[in-house]
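FIELD: query
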Amino acid sequence: MSRPVMRPSFWLTLGLAPERAVERFESGLARGDYPVVAQRAGLHMTVTVSPALRHFWSPWMNLEFSHHDPQAPPTDTSDVVEDAVAAASGGASTTVHARFSPAPSIWTGFMLAYVALGTLTFFALMYAAAQWMLESSPTMLWAALGFAVAWAGLWWVSWVGQRLAYDQMMLLREVLEKEFGR
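FIELD: result
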């Protein structure tokens, strides 16, 4: 990861029907000796590291299995080959959208903090504008600057957390790719 990304994601294209792909991945996790736990709800799965390895920044990988649209542009060169194989065999094709995020409670807390800081910055700027229009010193600009610095600090903390979770993110991705023969 060369640059920080909010909730990094990637896509895989498989030559299986979505239902079959989910079942194959689920049975592979049960059969394999992976340090991960998974939950399934229809064509959606959430995979995270086992509780023994979990820490504050441990990632969760959310998987969405959906029917592949062959008209969509390929996400990488392997998609083109697999699309051709699936089309030639007349079989179904699945797109797996994998997205990493922190634990839902942490994600919610960070988003709430971002929204709160954005709202506070907005109102501080409005108050400063009112001070300026009344021809007094817009001292609330200092508060707006403080909120903006806090927002930047929060972004930096989330970037550091993503760096600390990188090894576990790669572990989760490797498990997914190993089960589908990548």
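FIELD: remark
Confidence is low (pLDDT under 50) at residues 77-89.
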